[in-house]
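re the bet — no i am not wrong, look at it urself. input seq straight from the record:
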Amino acid sequence: MRRSVWGMREQCEHPAHCKALINMDFAGLFISQNKELCETYLGKFPVVFLSLKNVDGLTFEEARYRLTELIAKEAERFGFLADSDRLSENEKKMYQALTALSDGRYTMDELLLVSAIQTISQLLYRHYGQKIILLMDEYDVPLDKAFQHGYYREMVSLIRGMFGQSLKTNDFLYFAVLTGCLRVSKESIFTGLNNLKVLASTDARFDEYFGFTDEEVKILLEAYHLESHMEETKEWYDGYHFGNADIYCPWDVISHVDRLCGEPTAAPQAYWINTSGNDLEKRFIEKADKTTRDEIEALIAGELIEKQIRLELTYDEIDNSINNLWSVLFTTGYLTQAGRSREIID
């Protein structure tokens, strides 16, 4: 919703009409009650949105083109820049270079790709006189896929350069929000950045926003007169613990409620299965010795195990020890923290 609303603002030549569309989209929602927030931010910033979930390929060249295609298509969303009377002729040429095609393929080379997000930011700033907000989802996927397919070095160099220019030396950036599962990617590609605020699964700040809380699930079930299904919903989908909050998987809960609306006697299912890649986890499990396999079986049986977790892993270190398995499983949500061991000081 957020992307579509701001997208209309970026391309709308009639602010009053645009404001009416925005108000209609948010009418009745909780956020609309925060008048100060809405007046300060709603429809006031150009937004660049990128999801890197499909930046994949068996070779670096394939994956790099997927990234090129993604950014070029996002640039095309701001087609009005090509005719903007607030851009110089050189700036218009910069925009055309981002979206240029030859034989149906985007022609942006790697040097231009590295600075592409910063360039889009600059052009939008010139047009609106306002810094941009950058929203990036699944930022960890390109490096994860590169690690699996054997071109990690090339990809980390590309991503590090692109993110450095987009997030560190971008004078046209108001703020950015990046989301992903694997903390190892953060440690691998942001070594030159010192202006990030990391909110991990162990952090209590904003912990309730990583998914649905108990109260939110109750409200959702009541809205569809499904209160009697609260116990089974909690048993099946209340599997995460972020900071100090117990969190439900939103996809599972919504899918279960949708199924119940059409089939009141439907039993819960694991809707999340096969919705994401598990190559990194499989890589570890294939290397597991008997001790590790016994510990995995203990977890499946509902028992607890005690392990030291490292949140600062890099891909270079992953294969150093089988014990890194537990850190990867924890950061990707397969394990839930049940408590902390008492620290012993020598």
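see?? Strands lie at 47-51, 101-102, 105-106, 132-137, 173-179, 240-242, 245-247. told u. also Residues 60-76 form the longest helix (17 residues). so pay up
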